[in-house]
Protein backbone atom coordinates (compact mmCIF):
# COMPACT_ATOMS: atom_id res chain seq x y z
CA UNK A 1 0.00 0.00 0.00
CA UNK A 2 1.29 3.47 -0.89
CA UNK A 3 2.23 6.15 1.60
CA UNK A 4 2.57 9.86 1.14
CA UNK A 5 5.62 11.25 2.86
CA UNK A 6 5.94 14.98 3.49
CA UNK A 7 8.69 17.06 5.00
CA UNK A 8 6.90 20.12 6.33
CA UNK A 9 7.97 23.73 6.25
CA UNK A 10 7.99 24.70 2.57
CA UNK A 11 6.07 27.76 1.43
CA UNK A 12 4.02 26.91 -1.66
CA UNK A 13 4.46 29.07 -4.72
CA UNK A 14 3.48 28.72 -8.34
CA UNK A 15 0.62 27.67 -10.57
CA UNK A 16 -1.66 24.67 -10.16
CA UNK A 17 -4.32 23.53 -12.59
CA UNK A 18 -7.61 22.33 -11.12
CA UNK A 19 -8.92 19.05 -12.57
CA UNK A 20 -12.47 18.22 -13.60
CA UNK A 21 -14.96 17.58 -10.80
CA UNK A 22 -15.30 14.01 -9.60
CA UNK A 23 -18.79 14.72 -8.33
CA UNK A 24 -19.92 15.98 -11.73
CA UNK A 25 -18.19 13.21 -13.69
CA UNK A 26 -19.84 10.34 -11.78
CA UNK A 27 -23.52 11.31 -12.34
CA UNK A 28 -22.78 12.40 -15.92
CA UNK A 29 -21.27 8.96 -16.60
CA UNK A 30 -24.36 7.32 -15.10
CA UNK A 31 -26.61 9.51 -17.27
CA UNK A 32 -25.12 7.96 -20.41
CA UNK A 33 -27.16 4.86 -19.58
CA UNK A 34 -30.32 6.81 -20.38
CA UNK A 35 -29.97 6.63 -24.16
CA UNK A 36 -28.01 4.33 -26.48
CA UNK A 37 -25.12 5.97 -28.30
CA UNK A 38 -21.55 7.15 -28.11
CA UNK A 39 -20.65 9.82 -25.59
CA UNK A 40 -17.44 11.79 -25.21
CA UNK A 41 -16.63 13.38 -21.86
CA UNK A 42 -13.73 15.83 -21.73
CA UNK A 43 -11.89 17.40 -18.79
CA UNK A 44 -12.65 14.23 -16.83
CA UNK A 45 -10.34 13.68 -13.86
CA UNK A 46 -8.20 10.56 -13.78
CA UNK A 47 -9.38 9.08 -10.49
CA UNK A 48 -10.11 5.70 -8.97
CA UNK A 49 -13.79 6.58 -8.45
CA UNK A 50 -14.14 7.54 -12.10
CA UNK A 51 -12.62 4.21 -13.15
CA UNK A 52 -14.95 2.42 -10.72
CA UNK A 53 -17.93 4.07 -12.40
CA UNK A 54 -16.41 3.03 -15.74
CA UNK A 55 -16.30 -0.57 -14.52
CA UNK A 56 -19.89 -0.28 -13.36
CA UNK A 57 -21.00 0.92 -16.80
CA UNK A 58 -18.97 -1.93 -18.29
CA UNK A 59 -20.81 -4.47 -16.16
CA UNK A 60 -24.06 -2.92 -17.40
CA UNK A 61 -23.01 -3.53 -20.99
CA UNK A 62 -21.33 -0.25 -21.97
CA UNK A 63 -17.95 0.01 -23.67
CA UNK A 64 -15.86 2.50 -21.73
CA UNK A 65 -12.46 3.83 -22.74
CA UNK A 66 -10.51 6.11 -20.43
CA UNK A 67 -7.99 8.30 -22.21
CA UNK A 68 -5.84 10.94 -20.56
CA UNK A 69 -8.60 13.32 -19.52
CA UNK A 70 -11.42 12.13 -21.67
CA UNK A 71 -13.74 9.18 -21.54
CA UNK A 72 -15.58 7.57 -24.44
CA UNK A 73 -18.67 5.64 -23.48
CA UNK A 74 -20.73 3.56 -25.88
CA UNK A 75 -24.06 2.55 -24.37
CA UNK A 76 -25.54 1.09 -27.57
CA UNK A 77 -25.64 -2.44 -26.23
CA UNK A 78 -26.56 -1.95 -22.57
CA UNK A 79 -29.04 -4.64 -21.70
CA UNK A 80 -28.08 -5.51 -18.11
CA UNK A 81 -29.87 -3.85 -15.23
CA UNK A 82 -28.00 -5.22 -12.22
CA UNK A 83 -25.40 -3.15 -10.33
CA UNK A 84 -23.53 -5.73 -8.24
CA UNK A 85 -22.47 -5.39 -4.62
CA UNK A 86 -18.80 -5.93 -5.52
CA UNK A 87 -18.72 -2.57 -7.29
CA UNK A 88 -21.31 -0.63 -5.29
CA UNK A 89 -19.47 -1.37 -2.04
CA UNK A 90 -16.39 0.35 -3.48
CA UNK A 91 -18.26 3.55 -4.19
CA UNK A 92 -21.48 4.89 -2.79
CA UNK A 93 -22.07 7.02 -5.89
CA UNK A 94 -22.86 3.79 -7.77
CA UNK A 95 -26.44 4.47 -6.64
CA UNK A 96 -26.55 6.99 -9.53
CA UNK A 97 -27.30 4.15 -11.93
CA UNK A 98 -30.64 3.45 -10.24
CA UNK A 99 -32.63 6.22 -11.97
CA UNK A 100 -31.12 5.73 -15.45
CA UNK A 101 -31.55 1.92 -15.35
CA UNK A 102 -35.17 2.20 -14.30
CA UNK A 103 -35.87 4.83 -16.93
CA UNK A 104 -34.24 2.85 -19.76
CA UNK A 105 -35.13 -0.75 -18.90
CA UNK A 106 -38.16 -0.40 -16.64
CA UNK A 107 -36.23 -2.39 -14.06
CA UNK A 108 -33.15 -2.05 -11.90
CA UNK A 109 -31.39 -4.24 -9.38
CA UNK A 110 -28.86 -2.12 -7.52
CA UNK A 111 -26.96 -3.24 -4.46
CA UNK A 112 -27.38 -1.13 -1.35
CA UNK A 113 -24.11 0.70 -0.68
CA UNK A 114 -21.83 -1.08 1.77
CA UNK A 115 -22.08 -0.22 5.42
CA UNK A 116 -25.42 1.49 4.99
CA UNK A 117 -28.68 0.37 6.52
CA UNK A 118 -32.18 1.16 5.42
CA UNK A 119 -32.40 3.49 8.40
CA UNK A 120 -30.02 6.39 9.06
CA UNK A 121 -27.34 7.40 6.46
CA UNK A 122 -29.41 5.58 3.93
CA UNK A 123 -30.37 5.96 0.30
CA UNK A 124 -34.00 6.34 1.30
CA UNK A 125 -34.45 9.62 -0.62
CA UNK A 126 -33.35 7.94 -3.84
CA UNK A 127 -35.75 5.07 -3.29
CA UNK A 128 -38.68 7.23 -2.26
CA UNK A 129 -38.15 9.46 -5.29
CA UNK A 130 -38.33 6.43 -7.62
CA UNK A 131 -41.52 5.35 -5.84
CA UNK A 132 -42.92 8.86 -6.28
CA UNK A 133 -42.25 8.45 -10.00
CA UNK A 134 -44.31 5.26 -9.99
CA UNK A 135 -41.70 2.54 -9.51
CA UNK A 136 -42.40 -0.50 -7.35
CA UNK A 137 -39.42 -0.94 -5.06
CA UNK A 138 -38.51 -3.87 -2.80
CA UNK A 139 -35.39 -4.60 -0.80
CA UNK A 140 -34.22 -8.14 -1.45
CA UNK A 141 -31.02 -9.75 -0.22
CA UNK A 142 -29.18 -6.43 0.05
CA UNK A 143 -30.42 -5.17 -3.29
CA UNK A 144 -32.84 -2.44 -4.30
CA UNK A 145 -35.14 -4.14 -6.76
CA UNK A 146 -37.23 -1.64 -8.69
CA UNK A 147 -39.68 -2.02 -11.55
CA UNK A 148 -42.00 0.19 -13.53
CA UNK A 149 -43.82 0.31 -16.84
CA UNK A 150 -42.95 3.90 -17.66
CA UNK A 151 -42.05 6.33 -14.91
CA UNK A 152 -44.68 9.01 -14.35
CA UNK A 153 -44.00 12.64 -13.55
CA UNK A 154 -44.84 13.70 -10.01
CA UNK A 155 -43.82 16.06 -7.25
CA UNK A 156 -40.79 14.81 -5.34
CA UNK A 157 -39.99 16.51 -2.05
CA UNK A 158 -36.76 15.98 -0.14
CA UNK A 159 -36.63 16.46 3.64
CA UNK A 160 -33.12 17.85 3.25
CA UNK A 161 -31.49 18.78 -0.03
CA UNK A 162 -29.63 15.68 -1.23
CA UNK A 163 -27.17 16.08 -4.06
CA UNK A 164 -27.26 12.46 -5.19
CA UNK A 165 -31.02 12.01 -4.85
CA UNK A 166 -31.67 15.24 -6.77
CA UNK A 167 -29.41 14.02 -9.59
CA UNK A 168 -30.94 10.55 -9.65
CA UNK A 169 -34.43 12.03 -9.82
CA UNK A 170 -33.50 14.47 -12.59
CA UNK A 171 -32.12 11.61 -14.67
CA UNK A 172 -35.10 9.32 -14.14
CA UNK A 173 -37.69 12.07 -14.61
CA UNK A 174 -36.15 13.22 -17.91
CA UNK A 175 -37.91 10.41 -19.75
CA UNK A 176 -40.91 10.02 -17.45
CA UNK A 177 -44.43 10.51 -18.71
CA UNK A 178 -45.36 14.06 -17.68
CA UNK A 179 -43.83 16.74 -15.52
CA UNK A 180 -41.81 16.24 -12.35
CA UNK A 181 -41.16 18.95 -9.81
CA UNK A 182 -38.35 18.45 -7.30
CA UNK A 183 -38.99 20.52 -4.18
CA UNK A 184 -36.16 21.31 -1.77
CA UNK A 185 -33.69 20.23 -4.44
CA UNK A 186 -29.96 20.48 -3.85
CA UNK A 187 -28.36 23.48 -5.56
CA UNK A 188 -24.72 22.37 -5.89
CA UNK A 189 -22.92 23.31 -9.13
CA UNK A 190 -22.78 19.59 -9.97
CA UNK A 191 -26.59 19.61 -10.21
CA UNK A 192 -26.29 22.30 -12.87
CA UNK A 193 -23.65 20.18 -14.63
CA UNK A 194 -26.02 17.22 -14.73
CA UNK A 195 -28.86 19.51 -15.87
CA UNK A 196 -26.70 20.89 -18.71
CA UNK A 197 -25.72 17.40 -19.82
CA UNK A 198 -29.30 16.11 -19.75
CA UNK A 199 -30.44 19.15 -21.73
CA UNK A 200 -27.78 18.46 -24.34
CA UNK A 201 -29.24 14.92 -24.52
CA UNK A 202 -32.64 16.44 -25.27
CA UNK A 203 -34.15 16.70 -21.78
CA UNK A 204 -36.36 19.63 -20.84
CA UNK A 205 -35.32 20.85 -17.40
CA UNK A 206 -35.71 24.22 -15.72
CA UNK A 207 -34.65 25.56 -12.37
CA UNK A 208 -31.56 23.45 -11.68
CA UNK A 209 -29.41 25.54 -9.38
CA UNK A 210 -32.52 26.56 -7.43
CA UNK A 211 -34.41 24.57 -4.82
CA UNK A 212 -37.27 23.86 -7.27
CA UNK A 213 -36.44 21.93 -10.41
CA UNK A 214 -39.02 21.25 -13.12
CA UNK A 215 -38.48 18.38 -15.53
CA UNK A 216 -40.84 17.91 -18.47
CA UNK A 217 -40.42 14.26 -19.45
CA UNK A 218 -39.64 13.51 -23.10
CA UNK A 219 -40.11 10.24 -24.99
CA UNK A 220 -36.45 9.65 -25.59
CA UNK A 221 -33.02 11.18 -25.22
CA UNK A 222 -29.97 10.95 -27.45
CA UNK A 223 -26.22 10.70 -26.92
CA UNK A 224 -24.26 13.92 -26.37
CA UNK A 225 -20.86 15.13 -25.23
CA UNK A 226 -19.93 16.95 -22.04
CA UNK A 227 -17.04 19.05 -20.78
CA UNK A 228 -16.74 18.42 -17.06
CA UNK A 229 -16.78 21.49 -14.78
CA UNK A 230 -13.75 22.19 -12.52
CA UNK A 231 -13.56 20.48 -9.14
CA UNK A 232 -14.44 23.11 -6.56
CA UNK A 233 -13.31 20.87 -3.70
CA UNK A 234 -9.89 20.23 -5.22
CA UNK A 235 -9.68 23.99 -5.80
CA UNK A 236 -10.60 24.67 -2.18
CA UNK A 237 -8.00 22.17 -1.01
CA UNK A 238 -5.24 23.96 -2.95
CA UNK A 239 -6.49 27.31 -1.62
CA UNK A 240 -6.04 25.96 1.91
CA UNK A 241 -2.61 24.60 0.93
CA UNK A 242 -1.61 28.12 -0.08
CA UNK A 243 -3.12 29.60 3.08
CA UNK A 244 -1.63 27.12 5.54
CA UNK A 245 1.91 27.54 4.15
CA UNK A 246 1.64 31.33 3.86
CA UNK A 247 2.21 30.74 0.18
CA UNK A 248 1.33 32.41 -3.09
CA UNK A 249 -0.49 30.12 -5.50
CA UNK A 250 -2.33 30.79 -8.74
CA UNK A 251 -5.15 28.32 -9.43
CA UNK A 252 -6.07 27.93 -13.07
CA UNK A 253 -9.19 26.29 -14.46
CA UNK A 254 -11.18 27.18 -11.35
CA UNK A 255 -14.67 28.70 -11.26
CA UNK A 256 -14.55 31.36 -8.58
CA UNK A 257 -18.34 31.54 -8.23
CA UNK A 258 -18.41 27.85 -7.21
CA UNK A 259 -16.00 28.49 -4.35
CA UNK A 260 -17.56 31.59 -2.79
CA UNK A 261 -18.11 30.22 0.73
CA UNK A 262 -14.58 28.85 0.98
CA UNK A 263 -13.09 32.06 -0.44
CA UNK A 264 -15.06 34.14 2.05
CA UNK A 265 -13.85 32.06 5.00
CA UNK A 266 -10.25 32.07 3.80
CA UNK A 267 -10.38 35.84 3.46
CA UNK A 268 -11.57 36.03 7.08
CA UNK A 269 -8.44 34.10 8.10
CA UNK A 270 -6.34 36.82 6.48
CA UNK A 271 -5.68 35.24 3.08
CA UNK A 272 -5.70 37.59 0.12
CA UNK A 273 -7.61 36.16 -2.82
CA UNK A 274 -7.71 37.99 -6.11
CA UNK A 275 -9.03 37.22 -9.53
CA UNK A 276 -6.29 37.53 -12.14
CA UNK A 277 -6.35 37.12 -15.88
CA UNK A 278 -5.12 33.54 -15.71
CA UNK A 279 -6.94 32.40 -12.60
CA UNK A 280 -7.42 32.85 -8.90
CA UNK A 281 -4.44 33.96 -6.83
CA UNK A 282 -4.31 32.93 -3.17
CA UNK A 283 -1.77 34.59 -0.89
CA UNK A 284 -1.69 33.03 2.52
CA UNK A 285 -1.54 35.02 5.73
CA UNK A 286 1.61 34.99 7.87
CA UNK A 287 -0.51 33.51 10.65
CA UNK A 288 -4.13 32.61 9.91
CA UNK A 289 -6.79 34.06 12.19
CA UNK A 290 -9.16 31.54 13.77
CA UNK A 291 -12.67 31.71 12.32
CA UNK A 292 -15.78 29.64 12.91
CA UNK A 293 -17.23 27.48 10.16
CA UNK A 294 -20.57 25.72 9.81
CA UNK A 295 -21.11 23.41 6.86
CA UNK A 296 -24.37 23.71 4.95
CA UNK A 297 -25.83 22.72 1.60
CA UNK A 298 -24.57 24.83 -1.31
CA UNK A 299 -24.08 27.78 -1.43
CA UNK A 300 -23.04 27.22 2.19
CA UNK A 301 -19.61 26.02 3.26
CA UNK A 302 -19.16 22.48 1.84
CA UNK A 303 -18.86 19.54 4.20
CA UNK A 304 -16.27 18.23 1.72
CA UNK A 305 -13.98 21.12 2.81
CA UNK A 306 -14.54 20.77 6.54
CA UNK A 307 -11.53 18.53 7.26
CA UNK A 308 -9.13 20.62 5.17
CA UNK A 309 -10.29 23.84 6.82
CA UNK A 310 -9.82 22.21 10.22
CA UNK A 311 -6.19 21.51 9.33
CA UNK A 312 -5.75 25.25 8.74
CA UNK A 313 -7.54 26.14 11.98
CA UNK A 314 -5.24 23.74 13.87
CA UNK A 315 -2.41 26.21 13.38
CA UNK A 316 -4.48 29.42 13.48
CA UNK A 317 -4.24 32.25 15.96
CA UNK A 318 -7.07 31.62 18.43
CA UNK A 319 -9.89 29.11 18.77
CA UNK A 320 -12.49 28.19 16.22
CA UNK A 321 -15.71 26.24 16.30
CA UNK A 322 -16.33 23.95 13.33
CA UNK A 323 -19.82 22.50 13.01
CA UNK A 324 -20.84 19.93 10.42
CA UNK A 325 -24.58 20.04 9.83
CA UNK A 326 -24.50 17.60 6.89
CA UNK A 327 -22.65 14.63 8.37
CA UNK A 328 -22.71 14.62 12.16
CA UNK A 329 -19.88 12.13 12.53
CA UNK A 330 -17.48 13.31 9.88
CA UNK A 331 -14.59 13.81 12.28
CA UNK A 332 -12.35 10.77 11.76
CA UNK A 333 -9.49 13.15 10.89
CA UNK A 334 -9.55 14.71 14.38
CA UNK A 335 -7.57 12.03 16.29
CA UNK A 336 -5.05 11.96 13.45
CA UNK A 337 -4.65 15.76 13.43
CA UNK A 338 -4.23 15.56 17.20
CA UNK A 339 -1.43 13.02 16.67
CA UNK A 340 0.33 15.79 14.78
CA UNK A 341 -0.02 18.06 17.81
CA UNK A 342 -3.33 19.78 17.05
CA UNK A 343 -5.68 20.59 19.92
CA UNK A 344 -9.17 19.62 18.81
CA UNK A 345 -12.11 18.45 20.90
CA UNK A 346 -15.28 17.07 19.39
CA UNK A 347 -18.70 17.00 20.98
CA UNK A 348 -21.33 15.48 18.71
CA UNK A 349 -21.11 17.42 15.42
CA UNK A 350 -19.09 20.32 16.82
CA UNK A 351 -15.30 20.52 16.92
CA UNK A 352 -13.53 23.14 18.99
CA UNK A 353 -10.10 23.80 17.56
CA UNK A 354 -7.60 25.63 19.72
CA UNK A 355 -4.88 26.84 17.39
CA UNK A 356 -1.32 25.76 18.22
CA UNK A 357 1.91 27.47 17.14
CA UNK A 358 3.23 24.41 15.36
CA UNK A 359 2.50 20.81 14.50
CA UNK A 360 5.03 18.02 14.65
CA UNK A 361 5.27 15.38 11.96
CA UNK A 362 4.19 11.82 12.72
CA UNK A 363 2.82 8.69 11.15
CA UNK A 364 -0.89 9.12 10.55
CA UNK A 365 -3.58 7.14 8.85
CA UNK A 366 -5.99 8.39 6.21
CA UNK A 367 -9.53 7.35 7.02
CA UNK A 368 -11.46 8.81 4.13
CA UNK A 369 -11.00 10.98 1.09
CA UNK A 370 -11.21 14.48 2.57
CA UNK A 371 -9.57 13.40 5.85
CA UNK A 372 -6.56 12.30 3.80
CA UNK A 373 -6.37 15.73 2.22
CA UNK A 374 -6.50 17.36 5.67
CA UNK A 375 -3.59 15.22 6.89
CA UNK A 376 -1.49 16.11 3.85
CA UNK A 377 -2.24 19.81 4.41
CA UNK A 378 -1.23 19.51 8.07
CA UNK A 379 1.91 17.65 6.99
CA UNK A 380 2.89 20.61 4.80
CA UNK A 381 3.44 22.71 7.92
CA UNK A 382 4.31 20.10 10.55
CA UNK A 383 7.92 20.06 11.70
CA UNK A 384 9.80 17.07 10.32
CA UNK A 385 8.30 14.11 8.49
CA UNK A 386 4.64 13.21 8.23
CA UNK A 387 3.81 9.85 6.75
CA UNK A 388 0.23 9.40 5.64
CA UNK A 389 -0.72 5.77 5.12
CA UNK A 390 -3.76 4.30 3.36
CA UNK A 391 -3.57 6.88 0.62
CA UNK A 392 -5.83 4.85 -1.61
CA UNK A 393 -8.56 7.03 -0.13
CA UNK A 394 -6.99 10.13 -1.66
CA UNK A 395 -6.64 8.50 -5.07
CA UNK A 396 -10.42 8.19 -5.17
CA UNK A 397 -10.84 11.95 -5.42
CA UNK A 398 -7.57 13.83 -6.02
CA UNK A 399 -5.61 13.51 -9.22
CA UNK A 400 -1.86 13.25 -8.48
CA UNK A 401 -2.12 15.49 -5.44
CA UNK A 402 1.49 14.79 -4.47
CA UNK A 403 2.75 15.79 -7.92
CA UNK A 404 0.70 18.97 -7.94
CA UNK A 405 1.94 19.94 -4.46
CA UNK A 406 5.54 19.05 -5.33
CA UNK A 407 5.32 21.31 -8.39
CA UNK A 408 4.40 24.13 -5.98
CA UNK A 409 7.52 23.48 -3.92
CA UNK A 410 6.29 21.03 -1.30
CA UNK A 411 8.67 18.28 -0.22
CA UNK A 412 6.28 15.43 -0.78
CA UNK A 413 6.47 12.05 -2.43
CA UNK A 414 4.56 8.84 -2.82
CA UNK A 415 6.35 5.84 -1.47
CA UNK A 416 5.33 2.47 -2.81
CA UNK A 417 5.61 -0.35 -0.35
C1 LIG B 1 -22.67 14.25 -2.27
C2 LIG B 1 -21.20 14.24 -2.62
C3 LIG B 1 -20.37 14.21 -1.35
C4 LIG B 1 -20.78 15.32 -0.40
C5 LIG B 1 -22.29 15.33 -0.17
C6 LIG B 1 -22.76 16.53 0.62
C7 LIG B 1 -21.22 13.07 -4.73
C8 LIG B 1 -20.80 11.85 -5.48
N1 LIG B 1 -20.93 13.07 -3.43
O1 LIG B 1 -22.94 13.01 -1.61
O2 LIG B 1 -19.00 14.35 -1.72
O3 LIG B 1 -20.12 15.15 0.84
O4 LIG B 1 -22.97 15.35 -1.44
O5 LIG B 1 -22.41 17.71 -0.02
O6 LIG B 1 -21.73 14.01 -5.30
N2 LIG B 1 -29.48 11.75 2.99
C9 LIG B 1 -30.48 10.94 3.49
N3 LIG B 1 -31.05 10.01 2.65
C10 LIG B 1 -30.67 9.87 1.37
C11 LIG B 1 -29.65 10.71 0.85
C12 LIG B 1 -29.09 11.65 1.70
O7 LIG B 1 -30.84 11.02 4.65
O8 LIG B 1 -31.22 9.03 0.66
C13 LIG B 1 -28.86 12.76 3.87
C14 LIG B 1 -27.40 12.46 4.14
O9 LIG B 1 -27.21 11.57 5.19
C15 LIG B 1 -26.85 13.85 4.41
C16 LIG B 1 -27.70 14.76 3.52
O10 LIG B 1 -28.85 14.01 3.18
O11 LIG B 1 -27.06 14.21 5.75
C17 LIG B 1 -27.02 15.20 2.25
O12 LIG B 1 -26.43 14.09 1.61
P1 LIG B 1 -26.33 14.01 0.03
O13 LIG B 1 -26.35 15.39 -0.53
O14 LIG B 1 -27.31 13.05 -0.49
O15 LIG B 1 -24.89 13.39 -0.20
P2 LIG B 1 -24.43 12.53 -1.42
O16 LIG B 1 -25.21 12.87 -2.64
O17 LIG B 1 -24.38 11.09 -0.99
Key terms for this structure?
binds uridine-diphosphate-N-acetylglucosamine, four-stranded mixed sheet, 25% strand, 24 strands, 417 residues, alpha/beta
What's a concise summary of this model?
The protein is an alpha/beta fold and 417 residues long. The protein has 14 helices and 24 strands. The strands form six sheets. A four-stranded mixed sheet has the order 22-23-1-24. The protein has a four-stranded mixed sheet with strand order 2-15-17-16. Strands 4-5-3-14 form a four-stranded mixed sheet, with helices on one face.
Summarize the topology.
Layout: E1 3-7, E2 13-17, H1 22-31, E3 38-42, H2 48-59, E4 63-66, E5 70-74, E6 82-83, H3 85-88, H4 98-105, E7 107-111, H5 124-132, E8 136-140, E9 143-147, E10 155-157, H6 163-173, E11 179-183, H7 189-200, E12 204-206, E13 212-216, E14 225-227, H8 232-244, E15 248-252, H9 260-269, E16 272-276, E17 279-283, E18 293-294, H10 306-314, E19 319-323, H11 333-339, E20 343-347, E21 350-354, E22 363-365, H12 369-381, E23 385-389, H13 392-397, H14 401-407, E24 411-415
Helix pairs in contact: 1-2, 1-7, 4-6, 5-6, 6-7, 8-10, 8-12, 10-12
The chain binds uridine-diphosphate-N-acetylglucosamine.
Largest sheet: 4 strands, mixed
Proportion of residues in extended strands: 25-35%
| Helix count, DSSP H or I runs of 4 or more residues | 14
Q: Over all CA atoms, what is the radius of gyration?
A: 21 Å
Distance between the termini: 6 Å
Q: Structural class given helices, strands, pairing?
A: alpha/beta
Low-confidence parts: 116-120
**Small molecules bound:** uridine-diphosphate-N-acetylglucosamine
The geometry reads as elongated
Task: Kindly report the average pLDDT value.
Answer: 96
Total number of beta strands:
24
Instruction: Name the helicity range.
Output: 25-40%
Amino acid sequence: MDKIVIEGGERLEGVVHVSGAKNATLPVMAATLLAPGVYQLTNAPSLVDVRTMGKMLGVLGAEVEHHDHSITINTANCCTHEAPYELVKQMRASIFVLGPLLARHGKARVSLPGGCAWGPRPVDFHIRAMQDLGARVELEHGYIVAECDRLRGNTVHFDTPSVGATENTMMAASVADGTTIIENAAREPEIGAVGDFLRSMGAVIEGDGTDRITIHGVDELHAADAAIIPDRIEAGTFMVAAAITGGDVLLTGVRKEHCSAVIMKLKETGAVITEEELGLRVQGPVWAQAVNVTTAPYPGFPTDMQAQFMALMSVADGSSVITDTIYADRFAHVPELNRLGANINVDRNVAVVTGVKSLSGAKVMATDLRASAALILAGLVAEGWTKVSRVYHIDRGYESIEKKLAALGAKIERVRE
